[in-house]
Amino acid sequence: MPSLIERLQSYMRSSAAQRYESVPVPPFTAFFHAFDPLIYLNYAIPDGPISGDVSEPLRRLRAEFQARRRVPRFEYVSELAPALADKLLAAGFRQEAEARVMVCTRESFTPVEVPEGLEFSLLSPGSSREDARAFCNTGRRAFAVDDAYEASEEELSGFLKDLKEGRGVLGRVAGEPAVVGTCTPPSEGIAELAGVGTLERFRKRGFGSALTSRAAREAFDGGVDVLFLSTITEEAGRIYERVGFRFVTRMLFYVDAAHPEGAPAPVSD
Questions:
Q1: Where do the structural domains in the chain lie, given as residue ranges?
Q2: Regarding the domain delimited by 4-99+250-256, which CATH topology (the fold level of the hierarchy) does it fall under?
Q3: Which candidate, 226, 222, 162, 164, places its Cα nearest to that of 193?
Q4: How far apart are the first and last CA of the chain?
Q5: CATH node for 118-248
Q6: Helix (H, G, I), strand (E, B), or coil: what is residue 247?
Q7: pTM for the whole structure
């Protein structure tokens, strides 16, 4: 029987395949967003443990990214492909980040109180474009503080379509969008909490913890047994621990060293 960590990596692959274009480049699979070049929406995952010379597969993988004007990048659970990191470094990639993968179960879930003035909306494919716009703009601006981003009509349509059985959670204060997060569609009892981000002027007020708690409650009420997330900062990890998440493994993020861009660290509170 697959271990929990193997199940999580398998879920990451299948979830990416549902949301993005999948391009096999054995022993890797690349996933590309239909229209958004944002670096953390385009990445490759190894198909399993890596051995031998992978210089030719990496050359072909780079070509697939470059053909789509995307930055070559990897996201994967480190212990399931322990030899890959050295091979990527030798091939001209650099480590972008290392994240903690944390899980929460029905038994470990610890609800937190919602701060005064914070109200949540649950977004689904049938939500209004106004709510979708508030969600998309807040999510992007939370991760890129200096980005005066405005979601396009194409992105709004894609966002609502991609929600499927998953659900976005939007938190507002006095009607103003403040914090967002998304639960991906569940599969075999597993779902991911992703993109938890708080706008800079609303941080340090417990909004990220409250949104995480609300998203977890919705997931467990919807039949999820294991909810997981990944976080780069220890501070965010402590926030998630308050809700009942615990560390299980690490993810590595590698990006082509020829490109200086990197994915911004998650901002959860």
A1: 4-99+250-256, 118-248
A2: Aminopeptidase (3.40.630)
A3: 226
A4: 37
A5: 3.40.630.30
A6: strand
A7: 0.85
